[in-house]
Amino acid sequence: MENRLGLPEWLVEAVDKTRGEYDSGKSDYSITSLLQPAMVQELKRIHNPPEDVTDQLQAFIGTSCHNQIEWALKGNPRYIVEERLYHTFHIPEAPGDKKEFIVSSQLDLYDKQEKTLWDHKFSKLFSFTGGGKKEHEQQLAYQCYLLKKAGYEVDSVQISGFGLDWAKTQVGLKADYPKSLFCRTPYPQWVDEDVEEFIKSRILDMEYAKLGQIRVCTKEERWARPDQFKVKRKGRKTALRVLYSRQEAEEYIANLPKPDGKEYIEVVEGEDIRCVHFCNVREHCNFYKEKYGG
Predict the structure, then answer these.
(1) The pLDDT value given to residue 24
(2) Is the pLDDT of residue 208 over 70?
(3) At CA 84, angle to CA 79 and CA 86, rounded to 5?
(4) CA quadruple 12, 17, 18, 24: dihedral positive or negative?
(5) DSSP string computed for 278-291
(6) DSSP string for 60-90
(7) What pLDDT was estimated at residue 259?
(8) Would you say the pTM of this structure is higher than 0.70?
(9) Please, where in the chain does CATH 3.90.320.10 lie?
């Protein structure tokens, strides 16, 4: 593990050992790996890029808290804590000879009394507000599927979110600002057929990628931020309106009730957030090199 910023050696060692604790069990895929873009997974497998300790600190905090919750609740029969479950999917259309794939997921916490599935996340508040994140919903959907296959009833699935950027001084300033660092975000349950279709499609993506048939990450997977067309007026600092196409911006100006001829359009180019700021195999990605010249 690299240490480009010269963090203390004790921290580097602790983070590195904590990373080594992860074990997906006897499975072909974990749900966590299936939620990663197939291109990213395959490029990592091929190039094995180095990782820096700074990129692992948030995961280190999360793992440490997971361990503490497990220690506190493991002996309570009311809960299932940090237990890995498995299911085998038969996919006749998979390329190659292998047609059966074991997919696992480790449950953070299932409350038998309330019949509630919880998954702990440690991130910025935006991950838990405004409806949450799609990948959180997908992960919970599969974990709920596994629990039901194991004979448990599930009435509710929720993310137990710990907002790392929460600030007490912001409480009350915004109506929707959480009153606590802890946030609960409920998600809908999926029907079994939708879960199975999703898992099989992700497995096929991964299996074809291993054969060199790698699709480019979708806009959603790249966390793409679209171009913005800001309608501005000379002498005014803020935009009159922010739109997402030049046509919309031009139509907005044309329909202004009192235009003064000082309006103009400022274009702010969008960005693929994951590619530019988070992907550690971007230098091997043709899409990235063509778009950003890396």
Answers:
(1) 79
(2) yes
(3) 125
(4) positive
(5) I-TTGGG-HHHHHH
(6) HHHHHHHHHHHHHHTT-TTEEEEEEEEEEEE
(7) 80
(8) yes
(9) 9-210
Question: What tokens were used for 92?
Answer: 């006749």
Provide the Cα torsion 183, 187, 192, 198; round to 10°: -90
Residue ranges in the chain assigned as alpha helix (H) = 9-19, 31-34, 38-47, 57-73, 134-149, 192-210, 246-254, 273, 286-292
What does the alpha-carbon distance between residue 170 and residue 179 come to, in Å, rounded to a whole number? 9
Burial class of residue 44 (count of CB atoms within 10 Å of its CB; 0-12, 13-18, 19+): middle
Per-residue pLDDT tens for 139-171? 999 999 999 999 999 999 999 999 999 999 999
C-alpha angle 231-233-237 in degrees, rounded to nearest 5: 95
Residue 164 confidence (pLDDT)? 94
Is pLDDT at 294 greater than 70 in this prediction? no
User: Do residues 122 and 149 lie in contact, with contact meaning Cβ atoms separated by under 8 Å?
Assistant: no
What single-letter amino acid sits at 118? W
Angle between helices 134-149 and 192-210 (to 10 degrees): 110
Contact 162, 121 (CB under 8 A): yes
Phi/psi region, residue 90 (left: phi>0; alpha: psi -120 to 50; beta: rest), is: beta
Which residue is it, tokens 């600092």? 237
Structure tokens that stand for 277 in this block: 């700021």
The two most distant CA atoms of the chain are separated, in Å, by 72
Token pair belonging to 176? 């929707």
What mean pLDDT, rounded, does the chain reach? Answer: 94
Contact yes or no for 195/137 (Cβ under 8 A) = no
9-210, CATH topology level: Lambda Exonuclease; Chain A (3.90.320)
Least Cα distance to 107 among 88, 129, 87, 125 occurs for: 87
Contact, 218 vs 205, CB < 8 A? no
CA-based Rg of the chain, rounded to a whole angstrom?
Answer: 23
